[in-house]
Amino acid sequence: MELSSIQQIKTLIDETGRPLQGYLTSIPEQLDVESFRYFSTMDKQRSSVAKYFHYKQFQFISVFTPDYVIGFAIADIRYVGNSFCYLYDIKRNELLEQSWLRPLGLGYFMTPSLGKGKPCLTEAH
């Protein structure tokens, strides 16, 4: 498939509030979770409060080299933010890691997509 034939996907949610399914030919510009229609396991539409608190977001970046594996992640589970970074030294078989918790959305910022801004941690006060 030629790059010129790939159509940019605008969102993962269609006009009826359902997620698109199938093979993605590009990275979506946005998730559009605001338009997503959230249902219970019994197929009953859930409230906007339930939708807000049940939504989880995770952004992860990793780098692999012949000597090291490096990873960094920020996870937003609404009532607490969790982030971690690690460095694994392959030759020494050593793992260095650090993690942080930020309650109630304080001290971190997430973006809807890595292509739309930069997630970050801020100093805890």
Automatic annotation (TrEMBL):
This is Uncharacterized protein. It holds the Pfam family DUF2804. PANTHER family: DUF2804 DOMAIN-CONTAINING PROTEIN (PTHR35868:SF4), DUF2804 DOMAIN-CONTAINING PROTEIN-RELATED (PTHR35868). InterPro entries: DUF2804. It comes from the Bacteria. It comes from Vibrio maritimus.
